[in-house]
Amino acid sequence: MLRVKNINTYYGKVHALKNVSLHLNRGEIVALIGANGAGKTTVLNSISALTPPASGEVLFENEPLGVMGADKVVRLGISQVPEGRQIFKPLSVEDNLELGAYLRYRGREGKDAIRKDLEGIYELFPRLLERKRQIAGTLSGGEQQMLAIGRALMARPKLMLLDEPSMGLAPLVVQEIFRVIETLRAEQGTTILLVEQNAKAALKIADRGYVLETGKIILEEKATELLNNREVQRAYLGKDKKEIWER
Amino acid sequence: MASSDQILQYCLSGLSTGAIYALIGIGFAIIYNSTGIINFAQGEFVMLGGMLTVFFLSVAVLPLPAAVTAAVLVATLVGVIFERLAIRPLKDAQPITLIIITIGGSILIRGIVMLVWGKDTHALPAFSGNEPLFVGGATILPQHLWIFVITVLIIAANRLYFHHSISGKAMRACSYNARASRLVGIDVKRMVLFSFAISAAMGSMAGIIIAPLTMTSYDVGVMLGLKGFCAAIIGGMSSGIGTVFGGLIVGVLESLGAGLVSSGYKDAIAFFILLIILFLRPQGLFRKGETERV
């Protein structure tokens, strides 16, 4: 469904991604893990054309994304839930969700269909329904994350790019968010690329995983194998530290 | 000593010029919020409104409503062309560069108008006669009523657009978070273009409704633009009610000062208020936290 081929992305003079390649099959959940500053977010931004790669190719359903603006990428069915949620804080919860369907409104799609999806989001996140008139900036961190996911879903994406959905959230809320991610795949068949620092939680729900280190993909395996990989355990799962240290 | 009738008179005429400042100020705010720049060519749209209406009335001999519509359309087109030629090609430039470009643009527009229509002052007929109406002990002209009604309508339409239409909400979204706006598929460049179109339309309308009272010429935009800028600063660059109050405050104080102290100080009063606000409350009088920014 998505093929990223040998992309190189720069921030000014910083060479952030070095020949990164990865792919996602339809209906998969793929985790991308790595330390701070490894380039995980840059991978997502390269796909969504916020920071288009300088070389290499991103193909979505065999169509190259390289030359398009970010809005065209959304139109093709890729929605990104950005790091730090990035909701429209001074707008109401419902306005935020409606803006998620901005392109569908502009595409003259019937309002009923959008309305129905809005209700679907409220079913998925009943807490957003309770607060639909509230100013989004007054929501708790977990609710803001739900809103960010809900906003992305309103575009009816085929592929969702999730950037650190667990960041700064209480463990119980993290569980809830990850449960929703699994539900999305199960019920709507959404393909998901999940970027996480919380490698353990991400690998538990993922089918496959990639490990990114200083701008390069260093490992690609089934998620269960990554969970058992000693190197990954040491570097990203905080396990067996002592044993590996003394070896 | 001024009588209460006189005070009422000053307040009423101050409110009507204040309404004009408010419209111009909202134009400043809309562009500021979508691009982060102060568009110093805003006053020229105001001037264009008045001058183009005079042109369409006298040279093209259109009836007044048609002349007004044509003037607003042409001024809006100028706003769009201005954004295309002067702002968009430099999208990654620093705000200060763009601000200087808007000053250049304003001088250019003023120069062209002067070359084409000369330096004369032109009068625009009042929309519906000059028979004064009595309000308490004061008199107002029908044109004052036109100003109030049209201003209220424009502000209401503005509110409706920004708070109840998806495209208006998208424009606000861009001003709050341009990056996230791109991620939901909003074309931010297009929204910047819209903001210039809306501001130019509002500014030209303001220039048209005030012209029958104050006359118009190629250089009226400078002072009106700066007064509108005062209104926007007092309103904390909100395109909502804050700037409306800002405009009314400047208008009324200016009118009271001119009447009670000396008309020579009329313009000085507006800028004195501007300086005080910038020193004491640069965030605007009404701004608390991140409330109403459009």
Task: Explain how this protein is built.
The complex is a heterodimer of chains A (247) and B (294). Chain A is built from twelve helices and ten strands. Chain A is α/β, with parallel strands linked by helices. Chain A folds into two domains: 2-77 and 158-246, Rossmann fold (3-Layer(aba) Sandwich), CATH 3.40.50.300; 88-156, no CATH class. In chain A, strand 4 and strand 5 form a beta hairpin. The longest helix of chain A has 18 residues, at 171-188. Chain A starts with a strand and ends with a helix. The mean pLDDT of chain A is 90. With 294 residues, chain B is an all-alpha fold. Helix content of chain B is 72%, strand content 2%. A two-stranded antiparallel ribbon of chain B has the order 1-2. In chain B, helix 1 (4-35) crosses helix 9 (220-234), helix 2 runs antiparallel to helix 3 and helix 2 packs parallel to helix 4. The A-B interface holds A 48, 50, 69-71, 74-75, 79-80, 82, 86-91, 95, 98-100, 102-103, 105-106, 137, 151-152, 155 and B 166-167, 169-170, 172-173, 176-177, 179-187, 290-293.
Q: In total, how many domains does the architecture of chain A comprise?
A: 2
Within the CATH hierarchy, at the fold level, what is the topology of chain B?
ABC transporter involved in vitamin B12 uptake, BtuC
Radius of gyration of chain A: 18 Å
What's the pLDDT, averaged over the residues of chain A? 90
Characterize the main sheet of chain A. Answer: 6 strands, mixed
Low-confidence stretches of chain B: 289-294
Helix content of chain A: 40-55%
**Would you state the CATH class of chain B?**
Mainly Alpha
* % residues in beta strands of chain A: 25-35%
Tell me the number of helical segments of chain B per DSSP (H or I, 4 or more residues long): 11
State the helix count of chain A. Answer: 12
Order of helices and strands of chain B: HHHHEEHHHHHHH
CATH fold type of the largest domain in chain A: Rossmann fold
How many structural domains are formed by the residues of chain B? 1
Termini Cα gap of chain B: 44 Å
Proportion of strand residues of chain B: under 5%
Percent helix among the residues of chain B? over 70%
Low-confidence stretches of chain A: none
**Approximate shape of chain A:** globular
Number of strands of chain A: 10
